[in-house]
Amino acid sequence: MAENQIESNLLDHEWLAVDAQNNPDRWIHRFTEEELKDIDHALQTTLSKGHKTCETMTKEDFPLGRSEKPLQQVLEHVENDMGLFVLRGIPASKYTKPEMRMIYWGIGLNMGVAVSQSGKGDVLGDVKNLGDNIHPSSKTGRGYMSRVHLGFHTDSSDIVGLMVLQVAKSGGLSMICSSVAVRNEIARRRPDLLKVLYEDFYWSWKGNSPPGAGPYYKIPIFSEEGGRFSCRYIPPHIFTAQEEYPELPRLTEQQKEAIMLIQQIANEEKFHFGMMFEPGDIQFLNNHITLHARTEFEDGDTDETKRHLLRLWLCPPNSRKLSHNVVDFYRDQRPVEQLTQELERLKSGLQLPSESERWPNQAPPTQLNTSTGSDSSSRAEVLPESASTTPLKSFQSIHDKTFKFEDLVLLKADVDELFREYFLHYHQQLPVIDVQAEPAAIIDESPLLFWTIVFTACRNLPSQQHHYRSLCNKLPGLLGHLMMTRQDSTYTMQALLILSMWPLPVQRQSDDMRWLYSGMAMQMAMHAGCHRVGYEHEYHPYTYSKSLSNERSHTRIWRCWCFVNAVLSCELGLPCLVPFDALEIKPGDEAALPADFISRLRIVLYVSRINDTLGDNTCKDGSHRLRMVRLLEKDVNTLVSGLRQSPAQWNPSVEFVYLIVLLNLYSFCLRWSTPVSLSDPDHTIIQSSAAQAACQLIKLYSSSPLPVDNPSTSQPCPQRYYPKFYLRFETIALLMLLKISVLNQISLRELGEVDDAVRLGHGALMSGSSSEGDEFHRAASVVEVLCKKGVIDSVRGKSTVESRFGASLWLELVATAIRWRRQNSKRGPRPTDNSRNSINNNNSNHAGSTIPALNMSRAAGSMDVAMSGSTAADSVDATRLTMADVQGNANLFPFSIEDWSVYLDITEADLGLGNDSSWWGGSGG
């Protein structure tokens, strides 16, 4: 700032002591009875959720209702009026000290983000006398630890809040003045010293320096930005630096005089006023525009009567923009907008790839989302992952040449190919990534997201298969680091959602982490404010704000999570976690996501209603449940009939999701906890409908329901591009058909279609297998076991899966396969099936597999399998015997006959079946 500007300009928003004394309503609010009831209700809500300390609480755990209104007043007045506000009236004697801490913390969560008050990381500090040997002028002394008089100063945050638990026996008067008024008075009296205060001073960190920083730093006392004033004034920190670090320049006489002049003016009665605290008071001060002091106090004789305050340092959503001269001091606490601007400034100084070097078909990059998505837009927790101090030193990115992850090195051409592959074959299935984001920008912001995309794209790209195997070993370590070090960014959420669709391969389904990834993504998304639990009127712009530049990204992440969780709920038989108020599609969702994805989302969210309606095991009337299923089926079909009218809203992938929801619905009627008459006409209709849906799903799976940007692109095996839930529901459809064939209630024509679909579905599973024992192979093996034996009566009801919603049906059948194999398994080398010919090119890379060959005499879409010779299956086709007839006769089996005792043994341990986990559930499945 130029000298003449400093001398001539007096700033607005100054106030004097008389203004505060004559207008207490301007800065004090006493809680009403209704507001106090809301606060008490919020506390009881928190306690009922099992929280015993502040550390586990979230904003959603402390719903304030009507008492949010005074918090809006606080944020408005503290930033744009006097910089001072007091909330009064909380009955401190009614609550224990731990409960008061939780109340204060809950209020703080609704106002902004708490930041650390020391190198120890404490965010809720205790202000009380720790002994007469503590003095703020010492090297590491802090004023709040003592009882001595504290001169006028500021704290190191936007807002300091103090909650009063116990007042002093005497003394302890809180004194406040306007630093704007002090600044203006210096401009009138000593403009020469005003100029000095806008220049740099050296400050001591007082033992609380951040990692990598020295013991002191350099910033001015006064600064301005965008017409907004900011003062940082803590004289002991400046004088301690002079005493402890002789290498620093000595303070000039003018600097010393300027420092003391601030204290002198603030101490004049005209400029400050004092207030005595009451138990339950909460005082908020804006450190940028106020100074505060405290008189010496005398404590009571016991711990219970000693002065005790709780202190919060808050970063509110509406805090002022700070000058570049002081922004480094607040580097971990800046608003999203400021951080974005600084990153853009830094990026402008880097040599980024030119337009011609961008990966093909890539638009110029848009501004990256640098926030965690925090809807409070707070200065804390907004650092990108690349700016964290976590030990991810193994990642390097030389964007114009190579991308490195430990010993894995990718050339730029490889990365371009992989990103093309990802956006061509995977992105449309889960449109969670900004298609205009460049690989170099992604790895800078989130190595986890970058390598997740690379891992996903490698899985079916022959030229990159060796990288896929390498990343199978490396990604678990990166994910393990995420478990230990919280990295709540939009990029982390995107990576977790992608891995929920295309996870790491596992040997046991109990090791599948998709449900865990989905849960982590939900917690991060809720914390970041991607969704607000409740209704619009419960929020106001001061406690909840969303950057327009981030809104589409937040919407994409939240809605992709809703889709992933609903699908996993349907597949695993676990409760759908999508909040009730997120079940309705909103205009913002339709604007942010493709129409076909919105259609899939609309349909799959219906799983929540199905589970809520049918998941209650107390219903003993099977006929009533059948009728409820028919009504829900009608609702789903009504929803779908409207979507079918628009080509943009309906395609094979939408139909696949529609069919999985139907299978989930029908499953509730195909397995009963109480006896039900199978001759009930409604039950026969349900069986027929379920068979039709399962057969159609298998045909879709076999003929590739996925949209592809370039239809001319050949896919050697399209099944391997599917998200994992496609494989799981293909297998589920097969299990359901086997169950229906055992019930033997549908017509012979329908049973014939069931037999055809089982053959087709088994071939589709085998075409996706690349090695014996992989997940496709294991799923096919379970189907083969059940085709061999069918459902064993003695196994029914023995697996504890009653509470697993529609998944209970296929869990029962998996239990059947496990029991049958354990009763009949004998170890030994597997003989070669000499009668087997190779299945078509879709299965060319596992021609040596020893799974029994199929004789497919019927059309099977893209999965046609032609086998020479005849097997027992021909007699099945000739006489139209049903699967139910075949399953008791080893010579009438639709697969080739071999010694099943040498097959891959399916054990209870391998499949993770138990009371709380199963092959289809548990920790992921």
UniProtKB/TrEMBL annotation:
Region (Disordered) residue spans: 350-387, 822-851
Cellular component, GO annotation: nucleus
Location in the cell: Nucleus
Keyword Nucleus set for record: yes
Record-annotated Xylanolytic transcriptional activator regulatory domain positions: 421-564
Annotated ranges, domain TauD/TfdA-like: 57-313
Keywords: DNA-binding, Nucleus, Oxidoreductase, Transcription, Transcription regulation
Residue ranges that the Swiss-Prot or TrEMBL entry lists as coiled coil: none
InterPro entries in alphabetical order: prtT, TauD-like_sf, TauD/TfdA-like, XnlR_reg_dom
Biased composition regions of type Polar residues, renumbered to the chain: 364-379
Record Pfam families: Fungal_trans, TauD
GO MF annotations, alphabetized: DNA-binding transcription factor activity, RNA polymerase II-specific; oxidoreductase activity; transcription cis-regulatory region binding; zinc ion binding
GO biological process: one example: DNA-templated transcription
Record carries keyword Oxidoreductase: yes
Chief localization: nucleus
Low complexity composition-biased segments: 834-845
Top-level taxon of the source organism: Eukaryota
Name of the protein in its database record: TauD/TfdA-like domain-containing protein
